[in-house]
Design brief:
Oligomer: single chain
Keywords: Nucleus, Ubl conjugation pathway
Helix content: 40-55%
Number of strands: 9
Order of helices and strands: HEHEEEEHEHEEHHHEHHHHHHHH
Subcellular location: Nucleus
Family: Belongs to the Tdpoz family.
Radius of gyration: 28 Å
Strand order of the largest sheet: 8-7-9
Structural class: alpha+beta
Number of helices: 15
Protein name: BTB domain-containing protein
Strand content: 15-25%
């Protein structure tokens, strides 16, 4: 049904809102140097093949996350190029070519999450599913945390999470008893996770972003994971940067990890003085290599 054909009764139930958003755009120029050395160049130069024959360099990368791939081709042009090289080439010379690439990157910064707006109104469907969770009608599974129970619906949990789907599809104890005992999640965190699974919103995301990141990773809730990554990336500080980096690495949060490494790179002296950094060097020492690698990409 087209939007303008929607019955007036339905239109009356649609929530509308207005918001003032702020943002900015930053243009960055990233330069990358690539040195290509051709060993024993002279025999190839003197080979006497047809004009237009070329050598191809290894592939090299540029960009903030090395997302751009490049290669260089060196073409033989006898009349024009050979005479210039012979002035500098030795009898068994190496030819070194230095290539500088400048890439322009346009970065938009918005006051709202770019991956998902956690405050967006999901409409009547979201509201109805939220009510279904709250009133527990037609529930067919019980989630138990620290002796506290929450009733839910297998079909919704399975549709939203491949982990729950696998749990209910196979002859596991949880599927037979219609009861899932969870020992590594706080009750309030579980409630917020279920709220997201039913409505697409996480009311306490700012307070629970670290805990919700862990459960989103455990139950393969990629959208919730992205929301947590964004929330944590907006709260970087010198004191917590190393702890956030450990969280990102532990739960496979690639965007958050890259953002945190960039922050640490710009505040490396102060971050290295924190207790979080000292703890990280003992328990997750491989992350030091990741931070140092960022300096090599300057």
């Amino acid at each position: 049904m087209a939007d303008n054909d929607m019955p007036s009764a339905a239109l009356a139930e649609v929530n509308t809102s207005a918001a003032h958003a702020i943002g900015g755009t930053k243009v960055e120029v990233i330069k990358k140097l690539f040195t290509w050395t051709i060993e024993n160049y002279r025999p190839w130069q003197d080979k006497g093949s047809h004009e237009g024959e070329y050598l191809t360099s290894p592939t090299f990368s540029t960009g903030v996350n090395d997302e751009s791939k490049w290669f260089t081709r060196f073409c033989r042009e006898y009349d024009r190029f050979k005479q210039k090289v012979e002035k500098h080439a030795l009898s068994d010379a190496e030819l070194t070519i230095l290539c500088e690439i400048s890439e322009m990157v346009v970065v938009n910064n918005s006051g709202q999450p770019q991956i998902m707006d956690r405050n967006a109104i999901g409409g009547k469907l979201s509201k109805d599913l939220g009510n279904l969770l709250d009133n527990e009608k037609f529930s067919d599974v019980i989630l138990v945390v620290n002796g506290l129970e929450i009733k839910a619906h297998k079909s919704i949990l399975a549709a939203r999470s491949d982990v729950f789907a696998a749990m209910f599809e196979h002859e596991m104890e949880e599927s037979k008893l219609n009861r899932v005992v969870i020992t590594d999640i706080d009750y309030n965190v579980l409630k917020d996770m279920l709220k997201f699974m039913y409505t697409g919103t996480a009311p306490n995301l700012d307070k629970m972003s670290s805990d919700l990141l862990a459960v989103a990773n455990k139950y393969a809730l990629e959208n919730l994971k992205s929301m947590c990554e964004y929330a944590l990336s907006t709260k970087h500080s010198v004191k917590t940067a190393a702890e956030t980096l450990v969280l990102a690495d532990l739960y496979g949060a690639g965007q958050l990890k890259a953002h945190t490494i960039a922050y640490i790179k710009n505040h490396i002296g102060d971050v290295m003085q924190t207790q979080g950094w000292q703890d990280m060097t003992k328990t997750h020492s491989h992350l030091i290599t990741d931070v140092l690698r960022a300096f090599g990409k300057q």
